[in-house]
Give the backbone structure.
Amino acid sequence: MKKLVVIFVLGFMTLSFGTFAQIKVDSNGNVGIKTTGTLTRNLTVNGEVQITSTSTPDWASAFMTTVSSKDASAYDLHSNYYNQDVFYVVGEGYLWCRLGSYTGSDINMKEDIKDIASPLNLVTQLHGVTYKYKDDKEADKTKLNKRMGLIAQEVEKIVPEVVKEMKDGSKAIAYNDLIGLLVEGMKEQQTQIEELKSQITSIEENCCKTIMKSASIATEITNNINITEGKAQLNQNVPNPFSKETKIGFFIPEGSNSSVLYIYNMQGTQLQQYNINNKGDQEVIINGNSFVPGMYLYSLIVDSKEIDTKRMILTN
């Protein structure tokens, strides 16, 4: 009987050591699974790791842990992990962080730094879309009915630097890397806007000066004609355009009975009426505060006959 017990214990120990031979615990409490050599982390696994949860929603608590600042980063600058997938999310595909995340962007980590060429041209080629994932659960479709983003295959043709092919052959976009492009694109667009504003201001100033000069010459010529011919005349207002006030000059011949100057808006509604009692060269001063900025018509009526109608522009 004792021999049977000894044989059973030895057999159980042999089976146990065979089963757990690939799990190692060193004197510091570090655990290694399928590893060789010295353990340098609390848990080292050589191979794939699957973490699951039965909580609802399962993606919210599938991976919860607390680590020291020394071991918190899966990216190891000194081990040259530049081009390795160190953290890969599958399944539902959600990665949630309440306080946000940071991406290493220190200038000391970078080289071959260059400005983005023609950023606005690239941005205008990007095609934003709304979409749903084919494998979204019905519960997720209720909460996240539509998503917004870009199509990786389209982006790859425009900005290939931000697109990567995954292990399963699908393509993914590094959306954070697009921030620099969008910033530079907005800056280029703002520069164009400021240049256009400057051009418009210059055109307006030159245009107004030309109109005022032409109006002054026209008034002088008209006044000379009025005196020579002795006919009723309506002159162009000066200045035009105007913001504070402008003068409308006209000539009323002797022998006329009634003379009236009317102001209309562009819809033909009469806004003001000025009765003219004197003869010869006369003028009416129009105060810009009397109207809102815009274009207006004014007409001179002598003895119930329209002599002329002209336009004037009121600016801010």
About this structure: The two ends are 113 Å apart (CA to CA).
